[in-house]
Amino acid sequence: MSEKFYPTRHTTIGAVIDAGLHIHAFCFECGFDQDMDLERVAGELGRKQSVLPVYLVPKLHCPRCGSKNLATVLVTEGSEVSAEQIQHLKSRRGGES
């Protein structure tokens, strides 16, 4: 089954904040996961920082273990990242099943 990707207009930290969305980060090394503090990230990286994982993830590290082996997911207001989504991220990274 092929994955479907949908375009989004929320491509910067500022646009995500303004839209009331969240970015959830997951560490592949220690399993830590949480919604990111986007106001803090905007203060450090700027509101124009891209949220596309290829540009954002290399600038992040896990607050628990310091690893840079992370994934991010754009999350809408009122929804949560499910265990199934995290398992999908692990499988795409070659992690545990």
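(ticket continues) Second input and output from the same batch:
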Amino acid sequence: MLTIDTSRMGAMPFLNSHAGYAGLDARPGTVVPASLRFEGKTALVRVRLGRTESGDRVLRDLQDGHKLAVSIGYKITETQRIEPAQAGGVPVLRAIR
């Protein structure tokens, strides 16, 4: 079962790179609070683009039919140790939260 902690989604920035502290150019918009939904195994959110050059570039790309690859940050807070099925095997740590 998939569990996602959405408690910090109220003020999430929408970034154009992993350089989140690169100034406003790295932040073309924000994620709309409470907009997370799932379609099958796909997570979707609504994004509000800023009236900035970087927001305009993202909007033009979307209007031209370009799809955006998205990366999300996560933090593992709980793991489960799975012992190997065979002697001498390597145990696995599974992230469960």
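Agent notes: The chain is about 10% helix and 25% strand. The helical segments are 53-63. Closing as not reproducible unless the customer responds.
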